[in-house]
Amino acid sequence: MTILAAFDYASVFIFALTGALVASRAQLDIVGFIFVASLTAVGGGTTRDVLLNQDVVFWVANPTYILVAATAALIVFLTAHLLESRYRSIIWFDAMALAVAVPAGVGVALATGMTWPIVMIMGIITGCFGGLLRDVVCNEVPLVLKQGELYVTCAFVGAGAAMAAITAGLTVPVALLICAGITFALRAGSIAFGWRLPVYKSFPPRQ
């Protein structure tokens, strides 16, 4: 298995866990669990592949990804009640999923010969769109849009680090590992230490 395939499978599985955990908070049935888990798991990669005009979307070419997502949903359906805080688990699993999905998106875009701005955008889309779809469908405030939350910023910096590493002459696998490490470090720091971006605050109009 290549490092790119490993990132793909890991992102599908971990994002599916977050989708199923959100489904548990919404008290859905097992079909709902599998639907939300699968939507979360493949949403970002599907958007990426459509935008890159890939011949076949990755999970259509290899339905094993859906099986992986469904397995994650079943695991959560049977064990979610054991978690002390499902929301806290969602936050940390989502951070791990982001850290593997961004390099997966970067790797796929690089393989298609895209220029560096498109490579970075595809990394961001792969990392962010699945979680965004999950939260919108389950009527949650999207993590991507929470005030000052370091989320898209983590994906942007991670993807940028991958491109900088490749420009410096490092191999693609090493660049993807650097991308994963930096993305997770920033997101974990945001969760653990409260790192935030400045938030716009309006002022009353002048009289």
Poorly predicted regions:
none
For the record, give the distance between the C-alpha atoms at the N and C termini, rounded to a whole number: 66 Å
How many H/I helical runs?
A: 8
Q: Percent helix among the residues?
A: over 70%
**DSSP, total strands:** 0
CA radius of gyration: 17 Å
Order of helices and strands: HHHHHHHH
Shape: globular
Main beta-sheet strand count, sense and barrel state: none
What is the arithmetic mean of pLDDT?
Answer: 93
The amount of beta strand, in percent, is under 5%
Structural class based on helices, strands and sheet pairing: mainly alpha
Molecular structure report:
The chain is mainly α and 207 residues long. The chain contains 8 helices and no strands.
Topology:
Blueprint: H1 3-25, H2 30-51, H3 58-61, H4 64-79, H5 86-111, H6 116-137, H7 152-167, H8 172-193
Helix pairs in contact: 1-2, 1-4, 1-5, 1-6, 2-4, 2-6, 5-6, 5-7, 5-8, 6-7, 7-8
